[in-house]
UniProtKB/TrEMBL annotation:
Parts forming coiled coils: none
Family, per entry: Belongs to the type-B carboxylesterase/lipase family.
Natural source organism: Pieris macdunnoughi
InterPro entries reported in the protein's UniProt record: AB_hydrolase_fold (IPR029058), CarbesteraseB (IPR002018), Neuroligin/BSAL (IPR051093)
Protein name (record): Carboxylesterase type B domain-containing protein
Length: 185
């Protein structure tokens, strides 16, 4: 099998990049030699591209990873949520979201028809970054659009299409709230 090589201009670009790094680090023992096989060179190029894409993209790297909020205290324990960017709305700033915060004991088992009680306190910081389940409910069947439009106006059908994915996670243990607040800055 013939040995494959990277184009000369790519090797020179990598070499110049490494020389800049060497100049900024002041490591006298840093040797600059590109004695890599073609697989090693490809990996090096991919790492450099990844490095530049992460550092040049600014805030977009944080959008894919969930940024954590400050830790807040409640009478039941400490909470930490997530910061949600409002990218789709030009003039809105990010918000701190505390999702799925329990506000009462689950109405299950012997608590099913009893009045609600305060939730049990917790010792650790509770990460609240996902919405809790919604209470059980009968959902309308909108799979067949023609039949659905006989029972409801088009606007309601479109609204239900947007809403139904959020109603998939149903449980009797549904006493959770979502809290949104401007980012403290």
């Amino acid at each position: 099998m013939a040995s494959q090589r990277l184009p000369l201009h790519l090797c020179n670009s990598i070499k110049q990049f490494l020389q800049k790094i060497k100049a900024k680090t002041n490591f006298s023992s840093l040797k600059l030699e590109l004695k890599l096989d073609w697989q090693g060179r490809i990996i090096l190029v991919l790492l450099i591209v990844l490095l530049f894409s992460v550092t040049s993209s600014g805030n977009s790297f944080g959008r894919n990873s969930m940024l954590r909020t400050r830790i807040i205290g409640t009478r039941y324990g400490k909470l930490q949520g997530v910061i949600l960017p409002m990218d789709q709305h030009k003039y809105l700033k990010p918000v701190e979201a505390y999702l799925g915060v329990p506000y009462a004991t689950p109405p299950t088992g012997s608590n099913r028809f009893a009045p609600t009680r305060a939730p049990a306190p917790w010792d650790d910081v509770k990460t609240v970054d996902q919405m809790g389940p919604v209470c059980p409910q009968r959902l309308p069947d909108i799979d067949n659009e023609t039949l659905a439009l006989e029972r409801m106006p088009k606007g309601r059908l479109e609204y239900l299409r947007r809403l139904l994915p959020r109603l998939k996670n149903q449980s009797e243990d549904c006493l959770y709230m979502n809290i949104y607040t401007p980012v403290q800055g």
